[in-house]
Amino acid sequence: MATETAKAQNSFPEKFPAVSSQARRRFLIAQASLRASALVSALVALAVLVTSDETIVLFGIKFRAYYSYASAFRFLLGADAVVGGFSLLSLILLRFISRSGSNPRNYFFLFLHDLAMMVLMISACAAGTAIGNVGRYGEEKMGWVALCNRVTKFCNQVMVSVVFSYLAFFCYLALTITSANNLSSHPLE
């Protein structure tokens, strides 16, 4: 009797017979597609941000706009790198978890991973958006002038990078929702 209970706890199909193999396959394809999309989005955002650089001459003085001059953009770059790397690792982990007979509790760890990556991306996107907004429009009451009218190429590249970072965030938002839905239909015991 104890071996039957242990076997039932370790076998996904036996524990949840109501889940069709086609539904499970669709879930895994959606998971893999969203993870791959997050990976690509984060890497594109990273590449565009690293190459965002513009030098102008104003009143005979050279000024350079580069992402590393703003801590928010360095944070965005770091978050994109972390999310890109962990997206690749989670794709590999998904392959191992997707094997029939794997423990459904492993999906809980995937859910925690997705949640952490989603929170990291939204915080980095918010920081990049805030500084980008100040750069584009300035802040009159604080005396901060808009810079994007002088370094438009740099600002446009940063904006593209932030947009791709938001795409990675939305991929992880969808992953979190689908993982939570999967866990709610297959409660852990």
Automatic annotation (TrEMBL):
CC annotations in GO: plasma membrane
InterPro entries for this protein: CASP/CASPL (IPR006459), CASP_dom (IPR006702), CASPL (IPR044173)
Transmembrane regions: 32-52, 72-94, 106-131, 151-175
Annotated localization: Cell membrane
Domain Casparian strip membrane protein: 26-171
Main location (coarse class): membrane
Keywords of the record: Cell membrane, Membrane, Transmembrane, Transmembrane helix
Keyword Cell cycle: no
Membrane topology: Multi-pass membrane protein
Family of the protein in this entry: Belongs to the Casparian strip membrane proteins (CASP) family.
Subunit and partners: Homodimer and heterodimers.
Protein's recorded name: CASP-like protein
